[in-house]
Amino acid sequence: LTGREGDSIDLEGHVAQLLKGREDWQVAADLLARRRLRHVLLFAKLSLEKLLKAAVARRLCDLPPRLHNLL
Questions:
Q1: Distance (Å, rounded) from C-alpha 17 to C-alpha 32?
Q2: Which of 16, 24, 26, 53 is most buried by its number of CB atoms within 10 A?
Q3: In this structure, are residues 21 and 47 in contact, taking their beta carbons and an 8 Å threshold?
């Protein structure tokens, strides 16, 4: 697969890294159980952002932008 700049990319490898967002979700759940609410929000956001980017990458067969603005 070729990226936006014409360089070769390993899309599935990148998606696999993003799917590690599941670990962040588990951390958020553990923090919620300990009532660390501010930290829960941080890890939940990180997790959802990674998982959404993985879904977009697979759907579009391209890497998602390296921005935090997903709109």
A1: 24
A2: 53
A3: yes
